Amino acid sequence: MGREREREREREREREREREREREREERERERERKREIERVLEREIVEEKERGRGRERGREREGGGKRE
């Protein structure tokens, strides 16, 4: 009887270890996805900033030069 209970406890410990590994995998995946989303946002902001910069340059060319104060 004692051996069977010990085997059952060992199986339960193994199931708990597997659940913990799964939680860690899920956490790493969430972290990777969060980083990918940050990169996408930054890329979009960089592109938008470049587009705004090109618009300002074109505007100055039409005005006949750079900023004058």
Can you describe what's shown?
Helix content is 90%, strand content 0%. It is an all-alpha fold and 69 residues long. It starts with a helix and ends in a 6-residue tail after the last helix. The chain has one domain (1-52). It is built from one helix and no strands. The longest helix is centred in the middle third of the chain and has 62 residues, at 2-63. It is rod-shaped, with a radius of gyration of 29 Å. The mean pLDDT is 88.
Topology:
Blueprint: H1 2-63
What are the defining features of this structure?
0% strand; 69 residues; mainly alpha; single chain
Task: Summarize this structure briefly.
This protein has one helix spanning 2-63. The chain is mainly alpha-helical and 69 residues long.
Distance between the termini: 93 Å
Principal-axis shape equals rod-shaped
Compute the gyration radius: what is it?
29 Å
Give start-end ranges of low-pLDDT stretches. none
Q: What share of residues is helical?
A: over 70%
Helix- and strand-based class?
mainly alpha
The number of helices is: 1
Q: Would you tell me the overall average pLDDT?
A: 88
Number of strands: 0
Number of domains: 1
* Relative strand content: under 5%
How would a textbook summarize the main sheet?
none
N-to-C SSE string, H for helix and E for strand: H
